[in-house]
Amino acid sequence: MNRSSTKIFSALITVSGLALALPTVAAQVTLTSREQVTMTFAPVVKKATPAVVNIYARKVIRQPAIFDDAFLQRFFGQMAPRERVQNSLGSGVIVRSSGIVITNFHVAGDADEIRVVLSDRREFEAKVVGKDDRSDLAVLQLQDAPELPALDLANSDDVEVGDLVLAIGDPFGVGQTVTSGIVSGLARATPVGADFRSFIQTDAAINPGNSGGALITSDGRLIGINTAIYSQTGGSIGIGFAIPANMVKAVLASILKEGKAVRAWFGASGRSVTADLAKNFGLPRPAGIVIDHVNANSPAGKAGLRVGDIIRSVNGHEVVDLDELRYFYATLPTSGNATLSALRKGVEQTIDIKLLAAPETPPRNPKLITGRQVFSGVTVANFNPAMAEEMGREYAEPQVIIAGVQPGSIAANLGLLPGDVIISIADKPITNVDQFLRLIADRSPWTCTMNRNGQVFQFRNPG
After folding, report:
1. Which of 59, 285, 3, 47 is nearest to 168 (CA)?
2. Which of 211, 254, 269, 313 is labelled catalytic?
3. What is the SS3 assignment for 267?
4. Is 91 within 8 Å of 101 (Cβ atoms)?
5. Domain 46-261 has CATH 1.10.8.60
6. In this structure, are residues 167 and 222 in contact, taking their beta carbons and an 8 Å threshold?
7. What's the rounded mean pLDDT across residues 337-358?
8. Mean pLDDT, to the nearest integer, of 347-356?
9. What is the pLDDT of residue 12?
10. I need a labelling partner for 207 at 20 to 30 A (CA). Which of 196, 234, 282, 343 fits?
11. Residue 269 among the catalytic residues
């Protein structure tokens, strides 16, 4: 037999009367070239690393003066606010040759100064074009940069568990580093929490400083932005998470067009089908979303979606639970149509739903409350679908919401928080800002009822 040839054989062995088929094995192989003995990702790494950058971000944190109260300032004097500098280190990916970089919001989204260092050590100042804390993404523009190498974004829906991947970034500030592994899970929720709980999980080593870096396929396509790790030590234990490229595409396109992340408005809410619900509905397994509320004026309402419908898929993608529905819908554009597959009383339905941005109706009409009263320091606004989308909430009806609270104000000391909903004042339901302003102008005692994340509480204005 020629030594360079490969002899393949298989065996069938009987053990205690059981026939076991063994996999085919190679009897003997003689390798004759360096290419045959070397398995390397070097060509892919050489192509991808020039598009992965290091990010140095600086933010000045201004802490309020020790004595914000006017009465205390009379005795101790007015002390200037204190400042401290917060530095962060992370990574980013050039996704447009014009110098557009995608990174994590927690790396550079709120930075005052950003310096980006390329793999060839060239440095550029950068500005934030737009940011989206809900997806933990930020888009930067390098200043005065020439044409640069960029990575193309792949279709992350094609990723499968077991695919080989490479993670590229700057862990611990030691310099650009490449690690390899596989996709170990899909549609994962990160341990730090997020609005869109559908991450790519990998065992490729990701450490502090890798945030915002690239997760690429074995052929060099960008399938995710590394964002978090699960660790009890601060270092990699083989459980890392990346934001899927399809989410990155949607946020990037929206920010470059609108200056902010704008998502398609669904206009209905529901709950995941549990094992008990699946049994009650006669479903073979727990999968899908049961609709329990539909806004009549929303795209879902106008498309004919009804309470009790069970959504099974969006544009052909199976929807297993509520998190997947939110993720898939967040990756859709704000134009065109989407196709839902739903069960209605056991009958399959196809529902075409229009894709559009959540409207600013009614107008927010933000107002800052001043003076000596319980709401002093609060900014209130009319809650509308666009605001609900920004906050990751469902829009059901006109409400007045606290959009901001000034530190050290009467309202802050009272414990009011952004996101609190004002239900009623003096037993009168609150539906708009103008009505709210009229009611709080009443100097007589009254009681206010609030809602905070489903918990109702009250406080009294002494008048």
Report:
1. 47
2. 211
3. coil
4. no
5. no
6. no
7. 95
8. 95
9. 32
10. 196
11. no
